[in-house]
Amino acid sequence: MKDALAALFGAAFTVAACYALGSVAAARLRLPLRRQEKFPLAFLLGAACLHLAIFAILALKIAYTPVLIAALAIPIVWAAWTGDWRLPPGKGAPSRSLFDWAVLLLFGGIALWYTVLYLSNAWAPEFSPDGSGYHLGLVARYLRAHGFERVETNFYSSLSEGVEMLFLPAFAIGKHSAAALVHFAFLIALALAMLAYGKRIEKPWAGAAGALLVYLTPVVGIDGTSAYNDVAAAGIAFGVFYLLELWELQQEPRILIAIGLLAGYSYAAKYTAAVIAIYALGLVAWKARRLKPVIAVAACAALMALPWVIKNWIYFQNPIAPFANGIFRNPYITPDFERGWTSYLANYGLKTRWELIPEVMWRGSITAGILGVALFALPLGFLALRWRPGRRLLIPGALFLAAYFGNVGTRFLIPSLPFLTLALALALEPLLPVLVLLVAFHAWLSWPPQVRRHSPDAWTLQHAQFRAALRRVSQDQFLSRFWEYHQAHMIEKYVPEGGRVLAFGNLPDAYTSREIIVSFQGALNTRLADMMNIGWAESFQPTRVLVFSFPERGLRRVRILQTARVSNVEEQWSVHEVRFAHAKQELPRRGEWRLRAFPNPWDVQMAFDNSEATRWRSYENARPGMYIDVDFGREEIVDQVRLETSQDDPDVRLRLEAMDEHGNWTTLADHAKVEPMKYDGSLRLAATHELHLRGVDYVFVRDSDWGASEYSGLPQSWGLKRIAHDWGATLYRIAPEGSIEESKR
């Protein structure tokens, strides 16, 4: 029970601080908020401001629990002292017909029933895939470091983390489920804001129905009760839209400050949510027809967004990491990874876009989560184009739909839903019984047992979790049904503090303090995984030598130039070793040699380290102009250059060039003789030795991982010692004392 109360207190304290800070800001800006509007809009505005304060605390490396508690307490005390926390007086209750009362009771009952379901799940121990992974894994890491640090082994740390900044103080107080409860507060705020908007435009039933259609949607329910950020992004975006409507009605310049702050916070919360900032700037420019209001919005938005841009510039040499790595080249995220990752996100392996319809509506096995078949009615929202509110809602809805196709997971539709469901509700409000039946049908189909019946593979809530929420069932007992939790616990138990583990798939980082280096989550990770793959995958191994022979001559600077235009986007150029020789004697490598490469200059040393278990790779599709360049620092007599390579770049064509005394490149040889190569040593031992040299002494392999049998069959051939095996995975420790002789036994 103590843990349950800590989680609830951590979340409530954070939410109260957001509301208090937003109330103070709203009072100072004299925002014309009605009673029903104040909590959701003040909460969202305060969340934006509080996130910036937490960012500063992390940047200053003072993220200690007392400091975080003070950051939450100060705005609460401030709002209480000034009285800004109070809600404005409301109007008297309108007269209602018997039918209105029946609809009100139905809608209220549905909302209450689902709120109990959602609260129990948000309060239970957190174990959503990304929530227990990078969302809270990074939060826990920042807390251990008491501030930001470069996390080069996890590209997710380069994404903006505006919502995670609010998870951080809640997590410090109440751990994992406190963060999920904070996200649930965003869901409540979104629903209340939609309800208030309906009253603002004098369409209360449309507001109530639109809010419920979002609130009840299965993917919204599971996302909004997990430590994710999609529902938060939707709430922030709708807050920007709402404030724009108020500004247009009031024409009060101070509202533009709040609009700008929330618009910038949309970028801080989630890159794709930044489309609402574009909408805000466009609408203000169109309506004001002056530059000053646009500048005001842009400046306030920059206050929220620029810290994340600057952080990425400092830590990743790329202001918009993890994207545009071909423009902002850096050693942390490769263009090849970006290409493959964004390509996958655009289709999730589906053959056509038409397959998305059944996936996101009722199947959810690939795109994770469903909207529910009741939302097939969404296209009827276009009928709302007859009215100004309908037109205004559909524009941001369309913008978010356009952004959705960059990542077609079902949850990435969430930011568009408030606008689309309100438009649908507006269109159907003249037929109120039909609208009521649609909401009731959606509520029935979205209840977890119904979802599991028709969408058994979808990511969705299972049932209410009262015992787990109140910790009548311990966290370990509750999480024991998840095999990933056991695997994380295995690492926590057997890997010493400070140990680094190479893994080939995602793990719940939030439940271990050890650094898990997932094979695809960074350039370093990819290099380490590549070394291990070289140990067993023949296509990766150095099996041929490209020999450039020419009459001996004195050379100071030589480069190997790639000249082919390779059509296969998967094919890169790679080199295990470059060796220079004269009279069949290899030139000894010296510290004076200056090595360059394009692209990927950071790994060029791997082609000159005398280790066939490592290789330099372009990490981009091979194309003309790529090179490896060696400046000897003095003239050397050379008559042969040998490149040890694998067979996974068959279309690459190379030319050997030398720089003359005038600084011009001249051709030494434009054709290489191919000779077979057999490495006499153990590539497996060489691979694990390279990992050990880089401070990675543990390897975690699931039974389903690519090449798993190669490790389990004869681990001593790798210099690996099996530490533990359970729940479909094996943890190995690299034993430097392993030898080639042992590997043969």
Q: Tell me, what's the shape? A: elongated
Distance between the termini: 55 Å
Number of strands: 15
Query: How many domain regions?
Result: 3
Give the biggest sheet: 8 strands, antiparallel
Rg over CA atoms: 29 Å
Helix count? Answer: 26
Mean pLDDT: 94
* Class inferred from helices and paired strands: alpha+beta
Question: How do you describe this structure in short?
Answer:
With 745 residues, this protein is α+β, with helices and mostly antiparallel strands. It has 26 helices and 15 strands.
Give a description of the structure:
The protein has 745 residues and is of the alpha+beta class. It folds into 3 domains: 453 residues, no CATH class; 97 residues, no CATH class; 135 residues. The chain is built from 26 helices and 15 strands. The strands form 3 sheets. Strands 3, 5, 6, 7, 9, 10, 11 and 12 form an 8-stranded antiparallel sheet that branches. Strands 2-1-13-15-14 form a 5-stranded mixed sheet, sandwiched between helices. Helix 10 packs parallel to helix 12 and helix 11 runs antiparallel to helix 12. The chain is elongated, with a radius of gyration of 29 Å. The C terminus is likely disordered.
What structural keywords apply?
8-stranded antiparallel sheet, disordered C terminus, 745 residues, single chain, alpha+beta, 5-stranded mixed sheet
What's the topology here?
Elements: H1 2-29, H2 35-59, H3 65-82, H4 98-123, H5 131-145, H6 164-174, H7 176-200, H8 204-215, H9 218-224, H10 230-250, H11 253-269, H12 275-288, H13 291-316, H14 335-345, H15 356-363, H16 388-404, H17 417-428, H18 432-446, H19 448-454, H20 466-469, H21 475-479, H22 483-494, E1 500-503, E2 515-518, H23 523-534, E3 544-562, E4 574-575, E5 577-582, E6 585-586, E7 594-598, E8 616-617, E9 627-645, E10 654-659, E11 665-669, E12 673-676, H24 683-693, E13 698-702, H25 708-713, E14 720-726, E15 729-734, H26 740-744
Parallel strand pairs: 1-2, 1-13
Antiparallel strand pairs: 3-9, 3-10, 3-12, 4-8, 5-6, 5-9, 7-9, 10-11, 13-15, 14-15
Helix pairs in contact: 1-2, 1-3, 1-6, 1-7, 2-3, 2-6, 2-7, 2-10, 2-11, 4-7, 4-8, 4-18, 5-6, 6-7, 7-8, 7-10, 8-17, 8-18, 10-11, 10-12, 11-12, 11-13, 12-13, 16-17, 23-24
